[in-house]
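A favour between colleagues. Tell me how you read the following sequence-structure pair.

===
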Amino acid sequence: MATRERRSNEQTSVSVEFLWGGRFKKPLSQEALQFSSSFDIDKRLWRHDILASIAHAIMLGESGILSLSETKELVKGLIALMHDIEIGKVSLEGQYEDIHSFVESKLREYVGEVANKLHTARSRNDQVVTDFRLWCRDALCQLGKAILKMQQALISQAKQHIDTLLPGFTHLQHAQPVRLAHHLLAHFWAFQRDLERLKEFLSRVNVSPLGAAALAGAGLPIKPKRSANLLGFAKTAENSMDAISDRDFACELVFICSLIMVHLSRLAEEIILWSTPEFAFITLDDAWCTGSSIMPQKRNPDIAELVRGKSSVVIGNLMQLLTLLKGLPLTYNRDLQEDKAIVFNAFDITLSSLSVMSQLLLKSTFNTERMREALTGDFSTATDLADYLVQKGVPFREAHHIIGQLVLHLTEKRKGLENATLDELRLFSEKFDADALKILRPERSVERRKELAGTKKSSVQKQLKGAESEMEQTKKWLKSLRQLSERLKRYF
């Protein structure tokens, strides 16, 4: 069992409890304590530390290492401590080295010296990574819920704008007409991939390291699979040293957050552009805009801009974490204390960004007439004319050249394709007949494109049904995920 020692600091009379200290002659300096303490960061693991401790205590009792009365006393005390923290009776404050020493110290106030037996067959090394995995699993669930709300906002707007047309862009230049619903669904599927990554991530984060102890495994006859089962872990680690040193799951979570932020940033950039007078495709709700301190007329898309800016922070968090890990020898090194602040920051930013962007989008108004007007004179149906010639037997490369010449001709005359006459079309190819004029309307253009999951109305409606089906599956998955965290409820 780890040594417990309450030591007075050299410079102050503050008494600090450590989970070590028997072989030291001098107390830790106040400056060293402040520099090395992680309590202000890892105290948000308090619930996970208590839950893991409950599972560990039950397992020790079932293994015969603790008596039944000791086990019941420890579990009862831990549950009471959890409840008192939840209601604010016990505050997460004070001079503690970390959350583990806080929980053990507070538990002693509830159950007395039997609290000293809780750390049997356990090290802070396997304890902290167990807590961290549990927290990441809960974070996964929260991110899943937030992405689902983002998708619901996209679907809500898409349903209202199946028949709204606007230019689709490549290189930020008008390319071809698209439906606004189709455009919004493109963002939906990007977030769906984020959800799929979260689902795949579960299999790698949901592994119990509890029982690896310091690095070599526990020297007492414990039952790691039992504590894993109690905590909802799917399996136990394959190697005790890897169990302690592994932070791949932390990197993966931050990577997923980074990619979510990239997807949010791309959507934010479009909203910023579309809200300018030059585009005027979208009007943001007053509640999601800010003004200028000097220019009274301004309505700035600050929330979208902040999301775009914060994406760089989360991407930076990923680089921080990878750099932190890249040179560490096996197994535990104190450097790993820094991992949680990085992951917490990435998660907090991503979760809040998903929340504000979903609300901003849901409250926005799309200016449908302006979007349709933007298709006038933009030559975005030029490809339709090329396809027309292909159907008449003209090789595509030749058709491409013919339509390019037509566009140049009309541009010089300051006319759009919709204003072209049949005579003008025939100047460039005798293959054009009167029916060619009909395909120049954007409404006809979007209906011609069914494959691959294109802009045809029936295709977009099919996408919407598929998207709604995916959201229902996500709801079921989130429900099953919540159940993993409720395995211990029967002991409460």
